[in-house]
Structures are given as structure tokens and as C-alpha cells.
Amino acid sequence: MAQPTVVIVEDDVAIAQALAFIAEKEGYRVLVAMDGNTAGEMIRREQPVLVILDLDLPQKNGLEVCRDIRAEPQLGGTYILVLTALGQRWDEEAALAAGANEYLRKPFDPHLIRDKLQALRPAS
């Protein structure tokens, strides 16, 4: 069986690398997009099981990316984990309203990300 795919949408290289390291260690194929436009194209093409999505992105923000994912019927099963430094209550409400499954704030606990990856891993 092919490795499940996770797309990390993060414009901070160090954070993207840390998330990729965790996901690869859990057996995922990892793709990284540094802006919202690239992310949308990549997500439609790859149909990942999980998208880890920052909200503050160049070109197209994370809320727009989230809405675009939810507008695509073939991506209905994609889990969207918003991981952002934006910490206001309305940011979280907006992300969930746009279709995110979960909202976490940076800095994040790597163990929490690992646990989420393990929980979302498709059965072999």
C-alpha cells in the first residue's frame, strides 16, 4: 500500500521542516507548500489524508485555502489541521467555519502532532 500523504502549508521554513520530520517519522509521504496558491494546486492533485495549514500565508490565506478544499467533493475526507500563531477566538471560529477539523496554536507540542498523525493513519 502506498504511503498516505500529508501536505504541510507553512511559509516558515523551520516550522515546515519540523512538521515534515515528525510526519515522515510516522510513515507519511510529505509535501510542503509555502504559499496558498501552490497549496491549493498541490492538495487537489495529491488528495492528501491530512493538510496542516497555517492561516497567515502569502498569495492566498489559509482560510481561503480551507474553503477551497471543502468546495472540492473529492477532498471531502481530507482532515484539515490549522496550526497558526493567530490566537484570537475569532481566528479559531473563522477557521472552523471555513471547514477546518481542528485548530492548534503555535508554538505547538510535537507529541500532539505525532499523536494526530497516528490517529489519522489509514489502516493497512
Explain what you see.
44% of the residues lie in helices and 19% in strands. The protein is an alpha/beta fold and 124 residues long. It has a single domain, classed as Response regulator (Rossmann fold). It has a five-stranded parallel sheet with strand order 2-1-3-4-5, sandwiched between helices. Strand 1, helix 1 (13-25) and strand 2 (29-33) form a beta-alpha-beta unit. Helix 1 (13-25) packs across helix 5 (110-120) and helix 2 (36-46) runs parallel beside helix 3. The model has no long low-confidence stretch (mean pLDDT 95).
Entry summary:
The chain has 5 helices and 5 strands.
Largest sheet: 5 strands, parallel
What structural category do the secondary elements indicate? alpha/beta
- Physical arrangement of strands within the biggest beta sheet: 2-1-3-4-5
Rg on CA atoms, Å: 13 Å
Strand content: 15-25%
Number of domains: 1
Order of helices and strands: EHEHEHEHEH
Shape field:
globular
Measured between the Cα atoms of the first and last residue, the distance is: 7 Å
CATH superfamily: Response regulator
List the total number of helices.
5
Q: Note poorly predicted spans.
A: none
Total beta strand runs? 5
CATH topology: Rossmann fold
pLDDT average, as an integer?
Answer: 95
Instruction: Provide the CATH top-level class.
Output: Alpha Beta
CATH architecture: 3-Layer(aba) Sandwich
Helix content: 40-55%
